[in-house]
Every structure is written in structure tokens, then in C-alpha cells.
Amino acid sequence: MNLEAIRFLINASKKNYCIDSNFVPLGSCTMKYNRKILEKLVECRQYIKLHPLCGMPKAILDILLELEAFLKELTGFEAVSLWQQSGAHAEWVSMLMIRKYLSDRKVVLIPELAHGTNFASAIRAGFEVIHLKCNEGSIDIYDLKSKISSSVASIMLTYPNTLGVFEDNIIEVIDIAHKYGAIVYLDGANFNAFIGRFKPAEIGFDIMHLNLHKTFGTPHGSGGAGAGVICTNKKLSPYLPLPRLSNDDIENSIGYVTPFYGNVSTLIKAWAYIKLHGSSINKISELAVLKANYLKKLLENDFKVLTTKAAHEVVIEVEDAYSYAKALLDFGFYAPTINFPYKNVLMIEPTECESFQTIEKFVDALKKIKYSKVYLNNPPHSTPVKRVDEVFAARNLKLKDSSSI
Amino acid sequence: MNFLNNTEDLYRVMNILGIKTIDELFPNFPTSNFNLPKPLEEWEVEDEFFKKFDRDFLSLIGAGVYEHFIPAEVWYIAKRSEFLTAYTPYQPEASQGTLEVVFKFQSIISNLTGFDVTNAGLWDVPTAVVEAIILGSRVKNTKKVLMPSTTNPFYRRVIKTHLPDFEFIETSIDLESGKSKLLDAPIVLIQNPNFFGVIEDKAEFDALNAFKIYISDDPNFLIMLKPFAADVFIGNSQPLGNPVAFGAEHAAIFSTKLEYLRLIPGRIVAQTFDTDGKIAYTLTLQTREQHIRKEKATSNICTNNQLNIIASTIYLMLLGRKGIEKIVNRCIYNLNLFKEKFKPVFSADSLYECVFSFDHKRYIDLKNEGIYAGLELGKIYPELDGCYLVYVPDTVSLDTVYGVINRLR
Question: What single string gives the DSSP state of each residue in A318-353?
Fold first, then answer.
């Protein structure tokens, strides 16, 4: 046992901001509190010694089937694939399914303000991507009408959109896509905004992914492990990956996307999360949206708010998002999402977990930064390291030292 | 811990927003009907969960998921709030913990494998191989890949699903030696030791003129088995400090040559300085990534399995070479006990995994008692019916090993 190494690791850990010690208001990431009971379950000896090639124990099968049932109930969809490693993986796999279903269509339409993974995932599946113009965050219907055709396999949507707004024209967009036989995909990163309230399948989406490490409270772990679950209707369910937990018709499956059973630990945690909330799960979206609206109200008089009618997150314009982000670190807040979906914006998502007081303190900090320029004097100053030289990092490219075993 | 109940200020805030009900904040869709059970307390969830597990069993199977000793410290440290509930380290000033540890990981792995550069980790071995193949296809302008049947079959089928436009040549197994049959192709994969535990031929691999991808499914053994020269190294991080956990706890190691740096997927950490001249760490070359380049990104990856990589780093640091040596020597010793009593099916040398032929009825009797004396190969490779792929973890006692051997003879 290497005591020096232990001290290095513990002291390093203390240099991180994290949900347990700081407000992490990252828009579109849903950084909600991660309950430790979820960890306790997957640490038990009976589970951690299970080898995936010794058959599926009834315990695991029960839990995964129940998780599937919950997710179908929450989304309104018919069939689920639990195996994808992340949101981006789920997007990629969904695009492969759509490609097999509509094999003669080569184009995917994506709003220009969508999350970067949407574009990259469609390309991975071999599609050509065409951007849709947006007006104040919402899809420009005229642009959509000019670009939709029977060459379009799918349109990838985020709802609420990436400005945090429940787009008014969503039904019209879905109808136009369906009229031309295109599949409507929902990037479910923002599911926290309406979980337990209405079902995306009932609105007309054909297929979606959920990020368990966002909406379902499994931890981010400094960058993963997460899980991206795919939920879909009858059109696409025959194409879902293997293995299938229910005895479905599997001959049209696109094949295996995981060597064993994906991130089962994350799946179990999400199962437990849903059990803890049960029929109260709708309170999550109620409070998430209420708190985002409160945040918006507090910001309106001092900042240009781009989110016209807030769902669960708020986007504001600032002079220099990068500097604001660094200044916020000095107030003990992790920075919100910056420069997405536009340059020089901050995207702030309080989630249902933060108190009104924390939201008020956060807004106070933003106002102080805006009105008292002292906070923008090359921040941050109170973090474990000061402003990091990223230009030097990219030029010098020191990507390792002599550490070894 | 129930955030849904702290609503003392609820009415005050609703007043400020000028709403009478929260419904007014939502679109006009009719509220759907949700058939969900009543919320449970934590202990109720625990009870329900633990009740589901009934029996103990013993598994002498590797095949991509290798049980090893993991010091208790590894997950005590990895699950500290600061690592567990931290975000991806995009704001370096508030993420030095993650960045320092990942930089250590990159360093240890690069120095252990001999490859120039290592990224922060990818999802799992097969999808990391997919990334390597895509890199190779860019470098060599090709879609043709040699993927021997001696590569883990659970990985091969995942690789094929993700690359429908590629042509895969899956050469047959040499039933005498157990080695891969290699031939010339623009992109060549090799897993070493291969799926059957057999150590591959370095000279034959070196002689190929191809974009080479080398897969190490248990990097603990890198201390005794140096990787062949290749363009990309893919490692399985599960055996480094991650529990078996039904195959759930894993990430992939991706290392390559410096010349490919700007084409590779995933995050990379670089060492630099802060404004005070203090050493600091940051993500670098992010212009390769999806959040900046969208369609033109080198990959679509965003969330990787970072915490599992952090666990691997802690494991490597705490055990060091001596600790790992102890582990690998035990695995080899345990397997040799089998080799003394049963003749390996393949003639070539094996290290920590080996194929044996057992009496099928005796195998099934053990299996019915929850003892898996190896992975049944006949279902995956018809030509190996009656053969079993055995891995004996270092965590299995000698008594248990002798017990299983005696039952099989």
C-alpha cells in the first residue's frame, strides 16, 4: 500500500468542485444530487462478483425488466434498449436503426442549435447532415419545409430546445416530418423538464434516448459512467439491439452494441432512483421548471434573457461568457454551460434540488460580476489554481510525465 | 434527502412569478396517466434489492471480464464525492483533482505500453476498437479490416454493428496451435493473448504491412508481456481496479503514436501552468471534439467511463509493480494447477487463460451447483465443442482450485 499515493489522491480530490460541495448549474447536464443509497446497492458482494457469462441471474433480470417497464410508462414508448454507454452512443445506435429501417434515405435534419453529439452521431451512422435554421431558438418552419423531402430519414429534435423553451411549434414540426415519412428523434437530455407530466410518445416522437446520469440521478463520475437508454415505438422496435430481455422478434435487430449488458450498475441505480420517487416523480419536473422560472425572474431586470418562456433551464447573454464562468468560480459556483448554443451565453439549470436561497445567491453573484468589474480582473483567484494557460497547453503538448509502475 | 419536500418558500415564489398553479408553466398537453408505484423509503429499496439475490457461485471465466484483487482503498477513494459527483473537467481551475489523476493515468499507461500518447479513456474495448478502425481508415483510406476469429467474439459482433460499411475478414482458428491466422490487409487487429489465452507470434505480426491495432484484454499482464509494435493500443481497464459486476464496470484505454494525435477521439489532458506559474492541468486539443466541431469531430463521444479510469489509476498507483506482480503470478500459478492435470487443447503457450477439454457431464454437474469451470466454447465455436476456456482469478483459494480440479477428473 503506497501511502504517498493515497495522500496524492486525497489531496488531488480536494481540488475539485462537485455537486456535494458546490452548486453545479450546468445547463443541459441536469447536475442533480446523487443519492448514496444508489451506490450502496451496487457495492454488495452478491452483485459485484457476478460474471456476465454465467447466465442472467433472476435478480438482475427482474430489476432490468422492471426498469424497462418504468421507462416505457414514463415515455409512452413500446420497447427499450438499456445497453448504450451514453447519450452519444444511444444517438449513434438509434441512427443505425433508422438507417436500417429507411435504407434508401441518406439525410438527417438537425436544428443548428443542437448539441454537438447529435451532428457527430448522425455522421457516424453514415448520414449526410443538413442544418435547420432557428428563430429565437425555435425551428424555422419555412426552413424546415424547404429542406424536408423523401430523402430525409430523420429529424433530430431536442425538447425543450437548447434555449430551454418548450417550442410552440413542436407538433407542427413533428407533423411535417411524418408527412414525408421521416422518423422523429428526441434527444432526451432535457427530460427533467417534463418527466412524469406528459409522455413524448403521445406527442408524436418515434424514438428517443434518455441520459440516466442526467434525469435519473446516477452520478457523473467526473465524466462517466452513464448510460443512454433508447425508447421507441412499434415502427423501430424490431431494429433494437441485442440482447432483448423480452421474447421479441429479433431477426431485424441491428446486432450487439455492447459485449455484455452495458453499464448494469448505472441501470440498477436508475431503477432504485425510480423506486424512491414512484408516483411522486412528477414533482421533479414541477420543481425543476418552477425553479428555472424563478431564476429567470430574478435575472430579467439585469440580463438579456434569451429563453422566452422557461422550461427547466435559462439562457442569458453576457459580454464574455468565458470570463463570467471564471469569475463565478470565485463565488464557489461551478460555471454554467458557456457558449452553447450561441457564443457568449450562459446556460443555467438549477434542477429540482437547489434551494431558492442558492438560486438567489447565484443571481447575486452574477449581478456583482456584471456591475463591479473587479470580479472580471482575470479570474479566478480563489480556486486551487488560478487561470490556466490553455494556449501554452496546446502548444507545448505535455501529455504525460515519467510516472509509471 | 428528499428535495421534493422542501417547499417552504413555494407560495412566496409562485406569487413572485404571478402564477396560481405550477401547471401554468407547462405546455397545454393533457397530463398523461402514469401507472407508478408509491415512493419507497431507502431501506425498503435495500430490502427489495438484497432479497432478490439468493445463491453464491464460483466463476472460473475471464473472456473479457477478469476478476482480480482490488484493494478496498481503490473505491473508497474513487467514490469520494469529489470524484463521484464532479462534472467533466471543462473548467480546469475547478477540476484539478480529476485532471491530475487522469494525467497520471495517461502517463502510467503510456510508459507501461511504450506508446507515445494515451487519452482519458473510451467506453469499452469493442467501441474503442471501432474508433481505432475509423482512425486507420482515415490514415490508409480503406474500409477493409482483418479481424481474426481468435479475437473476443463478444467484441467482434459489437465492432461489426457499428461499422456496417466496412469489410471484415475473419480468418479461422489454427486448431493445432490456437494462434491467429494472419494475412495482409490494410487494417489488422490482434488480441494478445488472444481469446483462447494463446500468446501470438510477434514476428509474424511485425512482418505485416498494415495499420495495426493491438488489443490487451488484461493489462495487468503487460508487466510481463510487452505489446507488439502497432499504430494503436487498446486496453481493457476493467481488470485494473474495477469489479466484475456483471460486466458493467469498465472503460477502454486508447494509446497511439504522436503523429495521429490530432485525429484521435476522446479527451486528453495536458500539463501547463496557471497565471502564478504553478503547475496546472487542462483538457487540450478540444477542437477535435463534438462540442466544438460537430459533424467534423473525430468522434461523437462525450461522456466516457471516466470514473472507471480513475479507479484504474488508483489501483495502479496503490499496488505499483510489486503489487501487480503478486496478482499476475497468482493467476498464472492457479492456471498451472489446471495445466498439470489437464492437457491444454492448443499447443502454443498460454499465460493466464487456457482452453481445456473436460468431461461434459462433470462440467454440467458443477454448473448446476453454481460452479462454472470455464466458458463453454462449443456454443460460440462449433469446432471447439467439448472445450472450455478457463481463467482462475488470484482471489480463488488453492483449496477451491484443487476441489474443482478433482471434481472434473
Answer: -S-HHHHHHHHHHTTPPP-EES-SSTTEEEE--TTT
